[in-house]
Backbone:
């Protein structure tokens, strides 16, 4: 339940007091998190924030709560949480189709959402729960004094939390457009009926947070911890999103190219030589990962969904997937046949009969009918090691994304050159090429031709990582992409016949509007 919603409900029920222990149990519900070393804390006692925030160790434990807050909701999901990256970023796009038994996911795919949709409500509420937990970290650690913690350490911890807060606010404003902008921890029953802010105001706050974080954090690959490059890369992504609907602020192309060039010039990041290796458990925090959300499984209550939500036909105990969605056949057809990304990202085999290695490289294994092809980027082993609690980290921003965003930002200014294309797009295509004549290089064209090529490249390179819907909206191609889905087989239908322009955003949940009269249903036009 959304913390803001919960407190409002209690207020309406005449509840006079919420104990600090209860607030903490909701706001910082868990301070165990990712699988990297600094997140391996597993506390066995429960203390209030005031008792915890007395030194650096306590502050770092509290900071882990912020990482935990975003772990499942901003990512593709896990631990019973519907992840934003799957449901917003992938399901309602031209990467996948959803079968008739898809439940709420079917309604997202078919563009049949209503304000009472449970998954939309759940994601809204969990994002605001996460936001309040991270706000608590920013506010409370930020208030610590030099007698309690070295100021440099304090500011570093706050900077990390501000990045995490930006991932939440970016998800909110991307998805709903007009959302309550809550800048501080909610601890009081007063003044809780927060109205929606215009999207430009939310973006301004995100930019402020990311600039502040980038100014403090170290330039390094953080192994799961936020660093300078992560803040800069996300800032570049935010600037680019502002160039499209609904703001259409094309002046942000120049800001995006400048900050993304800083990431490229830092010397911290690079592409791995092999595309499949990027998604291997052995390379989860490689130099290609600018920021990746850590997961750990199975059986540790810290796993994700990546190799089961997206996985081959066959039993999950054999490395198969759930069958929750299938690959859009037009997407599969867009790949060159000798593009390694096609073989790595789309499963045409049955995991019961073939190993992941054979499933990817042996044509004899490709026996599954095309209507049943599955997404497949994170290859679970055929030994039952991660049936429903997968250990694969969730890439948030990869260096490959930085390269493509940089080319996009220059193209938006009319400054894209063949030299830049060669060091960005063609560098990725070279890595994807399995034969000398496969995956032809991109050649500079008109700005419109370049944009089409860049959007297509983003889908081939970044599919299933949760950015497709934002990309389509930013490029002004969302309606076109949805309307172009025509596929038979075990499919809930084609969404283009259902789509209306207002569905470019999700509706603010009706339950929230009923509780908070400051929320304006007219800011979800078409849904009310």
Residues:
């Amino acid at each position: 339940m959304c913390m803001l919603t919960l407190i409002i409900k209690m207020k309406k029920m005449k509840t006079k007091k919420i104990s600090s222990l209860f607030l903490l149990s909701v706001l910082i519900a868990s301070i165990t998190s990712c699988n990297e070393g600094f997140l391996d804390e597993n506390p066995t006692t429960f203390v209030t924030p005031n008792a915890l925030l007395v030194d650096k160790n306590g502050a770092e434990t509290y900071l882990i709560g912020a990482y935990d807050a975003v772990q499942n909701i901003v990512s593709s999901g896990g631990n019973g949480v519907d992840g934003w990256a799957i449901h917003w970023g992938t399901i309602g796009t031209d990467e996948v189709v959803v079968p008739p038994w898809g439940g709420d996911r079917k309604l997202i795919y078919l563009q049949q959402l209503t304000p009472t949709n449970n998954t939309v409500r759940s994601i809204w509420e969990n994002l605001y729960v996460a936001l309040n937990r991270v706000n608590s970290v920013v506010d409370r650690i930020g208030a610590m004094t030099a007698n309690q913690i070295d100021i440099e350490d304090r500011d570093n911890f706050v900077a990390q939390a501000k990045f995490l807060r930006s991932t939440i606010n970016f998800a909110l404003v991307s998805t709903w457009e007009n959302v309550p902008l809550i800048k501080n921890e909610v601890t009081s029953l007063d003044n809780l009926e927060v109205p929606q802010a215009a999207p430009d105001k939310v973006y301004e706050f995100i930019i402020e947070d990311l600039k502040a974080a980038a100014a403090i954090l170290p330039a390094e690959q953080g192994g799961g911890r936020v660093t300078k490059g992560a803040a800069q890369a996300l800032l570049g992504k935010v600037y680019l999103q502002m160039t499209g609907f609904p703001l259409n602020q094309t002046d942000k192309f120049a800001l995006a190219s400048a900050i993304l060039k800083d990431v490229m010039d830092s010397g911290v990041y690079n592409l791995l030589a092999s595309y499949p290796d990027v998604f291997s458990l052995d390379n989860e925090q490689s130099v290609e990962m600018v920021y990746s959300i850590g997961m750990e499984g199975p059986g540790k209550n810290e796993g994700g969904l990546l190799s089961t939500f997206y996985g081959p036909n066959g039993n999950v105990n054999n490395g198969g997937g759930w069958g929750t969605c299938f690959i859009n056949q037009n997407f599969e057809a867009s790949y060159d046949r000798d593009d390694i990304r096609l073989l790595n990202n789309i499963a045409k085999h049955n995991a019961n009969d073939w190993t992941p290695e054979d499933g990817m490289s042996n044509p004899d294994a490709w026996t599954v009918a095309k209507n049943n092809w599955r997404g497949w980027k994170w290859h679970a082993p055929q030994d039952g090691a991660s049936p429903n609690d997968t250990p694969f980290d969730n890439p948030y921003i990869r260096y490959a994304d930085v390269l493509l965003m940089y080319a996009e930002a220059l193209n938006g200014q009319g400054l894209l050159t063949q030299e830049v294309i060669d060091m960005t797009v063609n560098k990725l295509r070279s890595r994807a090429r399995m034969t000398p004549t496969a995956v032809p290089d991109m050649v500079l064209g008109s700005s419109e031709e370049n944009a089409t090529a860049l959007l297509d490249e983003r889908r081939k390179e970044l599919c299933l990582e949760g950015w497709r819907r934002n990309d389509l909206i930013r490029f002004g191609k969302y309606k076109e992409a949805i309307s172009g889905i025509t596929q038979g087989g075990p499919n809930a239908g084609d969404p283009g016949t259902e789509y209306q322009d207002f569905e470019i955003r999700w509706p603010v949940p009706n339950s929230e509007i009923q509780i908070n009269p400051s929320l304006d249903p007219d800011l979800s036009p078409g849904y009310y």
